[in-house]
Specification:
Blueprint lengths: L3 H6 L6 E8 L3 H13 L3 E4 L2 E6 L1 H12 L8 E7 L1 H5 L15
Length: 103
C-alpha cells in the first residue's frame, strides 16, 4: 500500500483532505462504492478506505452520490475531513498489500 503523504502531494489543488471508510456487506455494492470513490479521484489506502483532496462542493457532491446508494441496514459509510496537521501525525504500521478480489 502506498504511503499517504506522498500520494497527497500529487493530487489536484483541492483544499480539503478527506478520508472515506466503509463497511458494506453486499459485494457488488461494495465494489460500486469503491469505483465511485476512485472515479472521484480518491486513492485506496486500505480495502475499504480511500483518501484524497477535494473542494467542499466536491465533498458535498460525493456525499450525495453515496447517500443515493442502496445501503443495507447494517451498512455504513463514514466521511472524515482531515487537516494537514493531523495527517502529518499519521502512522503506518506494517506493509500489508491489498490482495485481489472485491474491495
Amino acid at each position: 500500500m502506498p504511503e499517504i503523504l506522498p500520494l497527497l502531494r500529487y493530487v489536484r489543488g483541492g483544499n480539503l483532505k478527506v478520508l472515506v471508510v466503509y463497511d458494506i456487506t453486499d459485494d457488488s455494492l461494495r465494489l460500486k462504492v469503491a469505483e465511485i470513490l476512485k472515479d472521484l479521484g480518491l486513492f485506496r489506502i486500505q480495502k475499504s478506505a480511500f483518501i484524497g483532496e477535494m473542494t467542499s462542493q466536491e465533498r458535498e457532491n460525493m456525499e450525495e452520490i453515496l447517500r443515493r446508494q442502496n445501503l443495507g441496514p447494517s451498512d455504513r459509510i463514514d466521511v472524515f475531513p482531515i487537516c494537514d496537521r493531523d495527517l502529518k501525525m499519521h502512522t503506518q504500521i506494517g506493509r500489508g498489500k491489498l490482495g485481489r478480489g472485491p474491495p
